[in-house]
UniProtKB/TrEMBL annotation:
One of its GO terms (molecular function) is single-stranded DNA 3'-5' DNA exonuclease activity. InterPro entries: TatD-like, TatD-type_Hydrolase. The lineage of its organism: Eukaryota, Metazoa, Ecdysozoa, Arthropoda, Hexapoda. The keyword Disulfide bond does not apply. GO terms for cellular component: cytosol. Belongs to the metallo-dependent hydrolases superfamily. TatD-type hydrolase family. It comes from the Eukaryota. Pfam families: TatD_DNase. Deoxyribonuclease which catalyzes (in vitro) the decatenation of kinetoplast DNA, which are circular DNA catenated to each other, producing linear DNA molecules. Plays an important role in chromosomal segregation and cell cycle progression during eye development probably via its DNA decatenation activity. Keywords: Cytoplasm, Exonuclease, Hydrolase, Magnesium, Metal-binding, Nuclease. This is Deoxyribonuclease TATDN1.
């Protein structure tokens, strides 16, 4: 058990490695991830500039890093010219770019007006339909409007991933019924996840073939010392995965090397072996995003 990750493929479908917190030691961060068993990392694009940088990283780390291209709802207001949309489409069309996003709706903060967010999201869904690439979706307190937009595209819609899901069981069920994938992060350590993601896992409401794992680095640090983590879940953590988190990750800067711990935590809640969850989530990511083996 202790060394199981030496032989397993674990895939981080969402890491913000263009963040300036990695400006000085990205090589070490990527190498640590590989040492931990994370063989592929998808770097999230959240603006045109950022998507360009994510694509550049795919060329520096070919076969390890893949990118997404999109405009985060917070940045929706920055998309004022047609030339920006053309540039985004060109980035999204690159073979190393495997999804459209991070795009969606966030009504918890007002960095961009809701109608501006809806316009930008609709344009990106249209782009994903044209390019036939999966959608990497961000949603906070905007599920009804988000589903309304996605429903308008009917059977043209490519596969949809709800990135870094933090919602309730009811919200999760709505996505699962649509056949969407849910991305799980270190948020499962938070007490607030009791009524949502933890129940989706422990009651096996979320099918294993719709589960994906991600660190959302540098955010979503998996606080394994959280008081309300059940004992049987804590027991599913191996010394090896905990060492990577304890030595290299902090609340200020999470890293992709934390992913095996997240897989083990998810496995603990589901009552499954970490190997099964690692293999299933890696297979889901390889198939969904067409990542080369």
């Amino acid at each position: 058990m202790k060394g199981c990750y030496e032989n397993l493929i674990v895939i981080d479908i969402g890491a913000n490695l263009t963040n300036k917190k990695y400006g000085r030691d990205l090589d070490s961060v990527v190498q640590r991830a590989k040492d931990a068993g994370v063989q592929k990392i998808m770097v999230t694009g959240t603006s045109v500039r950022n998507s360009k940088e994510a694509l550049r990283l795919t060329r520096l780390y070919p076969g390890t890093i893949y990118s997404t291209a999109g405009v985060h709802p917070h940045d929706a207001k920055s998309m004022v010219e047609e030339a920006q949309w053309a540039e985004l489409r060109a980035l999204a069309a690159a073979p190393e770019c495997v999804a459209l996003g991070e795009c969606g709706l966030n009504y918890t903060k007002d960095f961009s007006e809701p109608h501006v967010q809806r316009h930008a999201f609709t344009k990106q869904v249209e782009m994903a339909c044209e390019l036939q690439k999966p959608l990497f979706v961000h949603e906070k307190e905007a599920q009804d409007d988000l589903l309304k937009i996605l429903d308008e595209f009917g059977n043209r819609l490519p596969p949809v991933v709800i990135h870094s899901f933090t919602g309730s069981v009811e919200q999760g069920l709505k996505y699962i019924e649509k056949g969407f994938y849910l991305g799980i992060t270190g948020y499962i350590c938070k007490d607030k996840s009791d009524g949502g993601i933890r129940r989706l896992l422990s009651e096996r409401i979320l099918p294993l073939d719709k589960l994906l794992v991600e660190t959302d680095s540098p955010f979503m640090y998996p606080n394994m010392r959280a008081s309300k983590l059940p004992l049987h879940v804590k027991d599913s953590l191996t010394e090896r995965s905990m060492n990577f988190v304890n030595r290299y990750c902090t609340f200020q800067r999470n890293e992709p090397c934390a992913l095996p711990a997240i897989v083990e935590l998810a496995a603990g809640f589901m009552g499954r072996s970490p190997q099964d969850v690692a293999l299933a989530t890696a297979f889901n990511a390889l198939k969904l995003f067409g990542l080369s083996h």
